[in-house]
Write a structure and sequence with these properties.
The complex is a heterodimer. In chain A, 80% of the residues lie in helices and 2% in strands. In chain B, strand 7, helix 7 and strand 8 form a beta-alpha-beta unit. By secondary structure, chain B is α/β, with parallel strands linked by helices. Classes of the chains: A mainly alpha, B alpha/beta.
């Protein structure tokens, strides 16, 4: 049996086994497991074909990164849509840190300025920024609603709106950074991160793979912290009304 | 009608033709009354009548759609909001304790070195607690203790007026009487007290003037006339009915 055929048959068998198991256990998950699998297959097939094209035509690489940023912003924006200007907040909080980091890495020559190197790097950084923005934004929206009495108390004691919101934003940022730093801490021990696996499977030496992976992981820490900080700052601005008042999302 | 700025300035808050709404809904329409320093003004009415909304307009946590609130003759819209809120303190219905000890709560937003312990002790005593509470974690206090710390915390800012929202909501009769006596003492010392309450007997006991809110409008008068006319709606009756004379039934402040 050829390797591609073996890969397809094995993965299809695994997902069918998962669906069967879910069905047997009456978890009501079989359908969503199968649709998720089909969706992933289609998306990856399309992306695979597209990337092959993008690797040949550099202009398309820029468009590809733009699509990644847009999709990430829409996703993060929908997670905090109770806030005014949620999409714009998400766009700024994801694009600014992720794209700046890509620019710096390319400028210093950490990666080749080719579509083949830039697109996966940008993808990982945009994905990480998306995660940080979503975690911070969602926590902030929840805390704004649940903490309305606390915010009002601080305002009534003479706090500026920004100061009344500061404890909430600090909690949201630290809360978001915990799973993100855990991910870095466990790299290599608990999980073999995607870049490392991809490079090794692609034929790179484990040493090269580890070096590239470390660069990406450490860049991610700053990108994600900046995304969380930007989200908090922009949500603070969006929630602040004239006259040192706070708009609580409904 | 005289325009607000033509009047003799009121020593305290002067509410003039206040209209407040959320979206299409008008909660309060053309509400006017005075809340003078050295007196207790009670805002009464059933729940949903707009008492809390009105209180929040007095320190501009809410901005009214129309009308003005003057503090000592100055339009509160022109004052710096944080300075206004230190002059007009608010104790909300839910006494929120901020992280830290009682002392940290009392000194919140103040310079702890510059202020020292004395004003904090004084505020704590005025609210009916001793300085033994200073180092207690605020999160561990009981509901009644929290309410007192919240009151004391508003007092450490040395406000000229104090707004308090349903201060007796969660209290038994004895505790409610104690709160009434505390507010009365504060007013007798010169503070302007505005208390929102659905508890008519409590209002009759402590208030010099009553602002009755019903269907978005306000009727202002002495407690006796208004409460005698009030239908026996949601008023909480505690113990035997008390005489309607506002001043005869005042409780003595605790020693």
């Amino acid at each position: 049996m050829s390797q591609p055929l073996a890969q397809i048959l094995a993965s299809a068998a695994f997902v069918l086994a998962a669906a069967w198991l879910a069905h047997r256990q009456r978890l009501g998950l079989s359908r969503s497991l199968l649709t998720a699998a089909v969706r992933a297959a289609l998306q990856l097939a399309v992306v695979g074909a597209l990337i092959a094209l993008v690797f040949e035509v550099p202009v398309l690489a820029v468009a590809f990164v733009a699509i990644m940023v847009t999709t990430a912003s829409l996703t993060a924006g929908s997670r905090m849509r109770a806030l005014p200007r949620a999409r714009r907040i998400a766009l700024a909080a994801i694009a600014l840190p992720a794209l700046s980091a890509v620019g710096v890495l390319l400028l210093v020559g950490a990666f080749d300025a080719t579509p083949r190197a830039t697109i996966p790097t940008a993808g990982i950084l945009i994905g990480g920024a998306l995660l940080a923005t979503t975690l911070t934004g969602r926590r902030l929206v929840e805390d704004l609603v649940a903490g309305v009495d606390e915010i009002e108390t601080r305002l009534a004691l003479g706090d500026r709106a920004r100061d009344a919101l500061a404890p909430l934003t600090r909690r949201a940022i630290t809360g978001a950074m915990v799973p993100l730093t855990d991910q870095t801490r466990s790299a290599g021990l608990v999980t073999l991160p995607g870049t490392f696996v991809g490079l090794v499977l692609g034929g790179a030496s484990p040493e090269t793979a580890a070096r590239v992976q470390l660069t990406v992981l450490l860049t991610l820490l700053l990108v994600q912290l900046l995304s969380a900080l930007l989200t908090a700052e922009l949500v603070t601005r969006a929630a602040t009304l004239p006259g040192e008042r706070v708009a609580v999302p409904t | 009608m005289t325009r607000p700025e033509d009047e003799e300035p009121v020593d305290g808050l002067a509410v003039r033709d206040l209209t407040v709404g959320h979206g299409d809904r008008v909660v309060l329409r053309d509400v006017s009354f005075d809340a003078r320093k050295g007196s207790v003004t009670a805002l009464v009415g059933p729940s949903g009548a707009g008492k809390s909304t009105l209180l929040r307009c007095l320190n501009r946590l809410l901005v009214p759609r129309d009308g003005t609130v003057l503090l000592d003759g100055e339009d509160t819209a022109e004052l710096e909001p944080t300075a206004l809120r230190r002059r007009v303190g608010l104790v909300g219905q839910v006494p929120v304790m901020l992280p830290g000890s009682v002392r940290e709560n009392l000194a919140y937003g103040l310079d702890p070195v510059a202020i020292g312990d004395e004003p904090l002790t004084e505020a704590l005593r005025a609210a009916g607690l001793s300085e033994a509470f200073f180092d207690r974690p605020a999160a561990e206090l009981s509901g009644g203790e929290r309410a007192r710390v919240a009151l004391a915390r508003a007092l450490t800012r040395e406000p000229e007026l104090l707004l308090t929202d349903e201060p007796t909501a969660a209290l038994d009769a004895a505790a409610a009487r104690h709160v009434g006596a505390t507010l009365r003492t504060l007013a007798d010392r010169g503070l302007g007290v505005v208390v929102a309450t659905h508890d008519l007997p409590f209002a009759a006991e402590v208030a010099d003037r009553v602002v009755a809110l019903r269907d978005g409008t306000a009727i202002v008068g002495a407690p006796a006339e208004l409460l005698a006319a009030a239908p026996s709606g949601p008023a909480t009756v505690r113990g035997p009915a008390r005489g309607p004379e506002p001043h005869s039934s005042r409780v003595e402040p605790p020693a």
